[in-house]
Amino acid sequence: MSTAKKDYKKITTKSLIDMKAQGEKISMLTAYDYTMAKIVDSAGIDVILVGDSASNVMAGHETTLPITLDQMIYHASSVVRGADRALVVVDLPFGSYQSDPKEALRSAIRIMKESGGHAVKLEGGKEIKDSIKKILNAGIPVMGHLGLTPQSIYKFGTYTVRAKEEQEALKLIEDAKLLEKLGCFSLVLEKIPAKLAQQIAESISIPVIGIGAGSGVDGQVLVIHDMLGMNNEFSPRFLRRYMNLYEGMTSAISQYVDDVKSKDFPNEKEQY
Ligand code: KIV
């Protein structure tokens, strides 16, 4: 199977399904604002996820639970303005889809109408199947999310690897098949054993995008702040840091402070 990169003009949900069929891995990163989205998009990313991880990395909350639908719409609309090629997927935040399918649909419609995003992502399987159906029936593409679903962190009580036990692994396989059957266009698997993730990716036709789920899936996603090394505190095993932006930015900023204090900045050429 060829792994060459095809030159898609604009990535659609169909492009992702084609990529899986052709053995081309899907690249996905989060972004939460216009400038970052522009950089990520021009670097050639396939999918930009406006993740509810904005609650952690943008707002400084401990979990993803506090972020609101209005805040997600604000982040997503900024990202959409910066993205020309990538597919923009927007997380439905905690509390905006769990109580009933009608509310889920209203939330998804607000995301699509007010942000211009191209698809929504929801966490969960069988428990939220009616909400997923309702959203899909309205013509809104849905990406699923199983495994370590951070909106359920208080149920799990830990951020450790999920589905190591057979019972949870079996439920995960069932849920993945259900999401495919319902019509989700893809699925994120977070922090589960690589073998299980590969087994799922091979048993369903929709693309499976992993984070901490090994190399046997159809694509990878990371939180942009983590892969750029903007925070030093978060170091899970699955994370590859491509830069140490924390150090780079700290040193640039302290140089600026020194230059201002020492009256080196601005110099003759930097004024009118
Ligand atoms: O919110 C997020 O960033 C996510 C990814 C970790 C998949 O859901």
UniProtKB/TrEMBL annotation:
Catalytic site: E190 (proton acceptor)
Cofactor binding, per record: Binds 1 Mg(2+) ion per subunit.
InterPro entries xrefs: Pantoate_hydroxy_MeTrfase (IPR003700), Pyrv/PenolPyrv_kinase-like_dom (IPR015813), Pyrv_kinase-like_dom_sf (IPR040442)
SUPFAM superfamilies, alphabetized: Phosphoenolpyruvate/pyruvate domain (SSF51621)
Signal peptide: none
Residues reported to bind 3-methyl-2-oxobutanoate: D52, S53, D91, K121
Subcellular location per the Swiss-Prot or TrEMBL entry: Cytoplasm
Keyword Transferase: yes
Subunit field text: Homodecamer; pentamer of dimers.
Role played: Catalyzes the reversible reaction in which hydroxymethyl group from 5,10-methylenetetrahydrofolate is transferred onto alpha-ketoisovalerate to form ketopantoate.
Protein name listed in UniProt: 3-methyl-2-oxobutanoate hydroxymethyltransferase
Source organism (scientific name): Flavobacterium pokkalii
Gene name per UniProt: panB
